[in-house]
Write a structure and sequence with these properties.
The complex is a heterodimer of chains A (about 35) and B (about 230).
Chain A lengths: L6 H29 L1
Chain B lengths: L2 H32 L14 H28 L2 H32 L8 H22 L3 H13 L1 H14 L19 H40 L4
The chains are: A mainly alpha (about 35), B mainly alpha (about 230).
Chain lengths: ~35, ~230
């Protein structure tokens, strides 16, 4: 018996996590640049 | 060493930690995708586990740190404690967004529903909303000491809620599973999965420290600018 075909859920989870981390990194970078 | 030197040193350390953790994240993703086995009943969707657990660890840990620093602030009245508590709360919210989005995605696959109002999920959402309130409050109070005191009182509540969230799966019947690693009898997963999970938790922890260091340095720079403005230096 094969695995359930649900890889799309995992991909969605990792895309969201990456987007949130990247957005916060950029937000920190821009805020720091404005203060320096 | 001047205040500006301290801020610049923190920035350097913060960026080294953050960029190192972001590189580590690429390794985690590669390991999850190609070197970690697929769970036999849940299928590939179970791989959300490695990012969900790590972000939950970082988020709840961040809120707990804010709680401890808030308690220390109420005792010592040291403004630095309040500034680090604020930094930790903001980073905790960021990880909280990941925890509260990856959890329902995984839940939809294994439970058949995006959300369930059980003790663990509800109290986690409540903690997240509490820290949104914490952030809103900080923006609404201008006086620095009043702001620090009021927000510390909210921050301390996490010291009650975080342990409750961890214990809720043992105290109530919940859809959310019990922790697979920190349990009596040892971890309940194959070594390859456990190594990926522990490495992911480590990378998220370093990312947390990097972000908090940068956020703290940002607060010091803002303070400096305010002091310079008060003294008429442009």
């Amino acid at each position: 018996m094969g695995y359930p075909d649900n890889a799309v859920y995992a991909v969605a989870g990792y895309i969201i996590a990456s987007a949130v981390i990247l957005a916060y990194s950029v937000s920190l970078f821009l805020r720091i640049r404005n203060e320096r | 060493m001047t205040k500006r030197d301290v801020a610049l040193q923190l920035l350097r350390r913060g960026w080294v930690l953050t960029l190192g953790a972001l590189a580590g994240l690429v390794i985690v993703y590669t390991r999850v995708a190609f070197f970690t086995p697929i769970e036999s009943t849940q299928g590939p969707a179970q791989k959300i586990f490695y990012v969900h657990v790590s972000s939950a660890w970082a988020s709840l840990g961040a809120f707990a740190v804010t709680g401890i620093l808030s308690l220390l602030y109420l005792w010592r009245r040291d403004r630095k404690l309040d500034t680090v508590a604020e930094a930790s709360a903001e980073v905790g919210l960021m990880f909280g967004v990941i925890m509260l989005t990856t959890g329902p995605i995984w839940g939809k696959v294994v439970w058949g529903t995006w959300w369930d109002w059980d003790a663990k999920l509800t109290s986690t959402l409540f903690l997240f909303l509490l820290f949104i309130g914490y952030t809103v409050l900080r923006g609404a109070v201008a006086d620095l000491d009043t702001r620090a005191r009021f927000s510390a009182v909210i921050g301390v509540l996490s010291l009650v809620l975080v342990p409750f969230i961890f214990l809720s799966v043992h105290m109530f019947r919940t859809l959310h599973p019990k922790p697979p690693v920190l349990r009596a009898g040892g971890p309940s997963m194959p070594a390859a999965m456990l190594i990926t999970l522990l490495f992911s938790v480590f990378v998220f922890s370093v990312l947390y420290v990097g972000f908090v260091t940068l956020r703290y340095a940002l607060a010091v720079l803002k303070e400096l600018r305010a002091e310079e403005a008060a003294h008429g230096i442009s």
